[in-house]
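FAQ: What does a ligand-bound record look like?

Like this one, built around zinc ion:
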Amino acid sequence: MRPMLKSALSRTWRDKQTLQFGTEPERAHVVDQADERFCAFLDLLDGERDGPAVAAAAEGLGLAPGYVTQALRSLTETGLLDDAAAVEQALAELPPSRRELLGPDLASLSLLHPRPGGGAQVLARRTGLRVEVRGAGRVGTAVAAVLAAGGVGEVRVVDQGRVLPGDCAPGGIPAQEVGRTRAAAAREAVRRAGGLPGQATAASRSARTEPAGRPPDLVVLAPRDGSGAYAGDAVEAHTLMQAGTPHLYLGVIEHLGVVGPLVLPGASACGRCLGLARTDRDAAWPRVLAQLSATGPAQPREVACDGAVAAAVAGLAGLHALLLLDGVRPPSVDGWCEVSALDGMVRRLRLPPHTECGCFWR
Ligand SMILES: [Zn+2]
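The answer part, i.e. the structure of the complex:
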């Protein structure tokens, strides 16, 4: 370990002797009696020295070994200390372009995972994960880009056909890609967002890190027509449930952006639970859903999708997906979040497993 103060935390003086790390009340930490000796010791924690080298340099400043041990322990317990060696190791295999782009993400993770090297280990784990996004529309490609930019090792977008103007969005497929195949345009958007130098490099890296045929760690269901918002594809849901694959529904329907439910098969409410809950409130829902799933003149000629709502859905969905991949249970599990174009509000709604669904039955 090579101790260093976390680069993401500001250092400010509350008065002549009280040093504050960070600004947010939940995470900020205050050190009373931060005298000259303490500040000189902090200057040694630059990530260049290992523990014994820190102790030796501290001795040169007249600091006793006991002082150093106690100070390092205290800084570790309060989450102020990182491990430069772990950070280097986490980033070592990434191309330089990707490494630089991930700097702020790593700084953020170091705050969320407080022990020294904790954030670096989470980021390193992300680089070995696979996510499949189904749907290369405004929301799907933007989510894929968020995940690639967040360090997920392999993000694959699945769709057919060619890019239409309505598929384009900030953070997703740019307007100049209209007419290109959606799969190729989405792949390029993911490559750009992830800072990967070229498709060959990405493919060879995936080949090194991923066993052949390994299923994705998460599937994101974001069909271009927004129907992911009501999780209506029973066949797709059944396949994912049988395979035990975590999957996240999302989409923009009319004025409403929806993120969730995020389904942990056998451990949380599923897409069918959502349909049954809706049927409890509206007995005609199954008949309506069947008609929505069919193509024909009754369907909208232009799918409504507010660009700002789509961007909000993509960002929120990306955050929830990364939380899950990092081992945290996001609020779209056993629920879903709605973003409304009417008032800009974000709401979280509960979705308990439905008693008639059977997804919890053994
Ligand atoms: Zn269910």
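Follow-up question: can I read anything off the structure? Yes, for example: Residues 200-211 have pLDDT under 50 and may be disordered.
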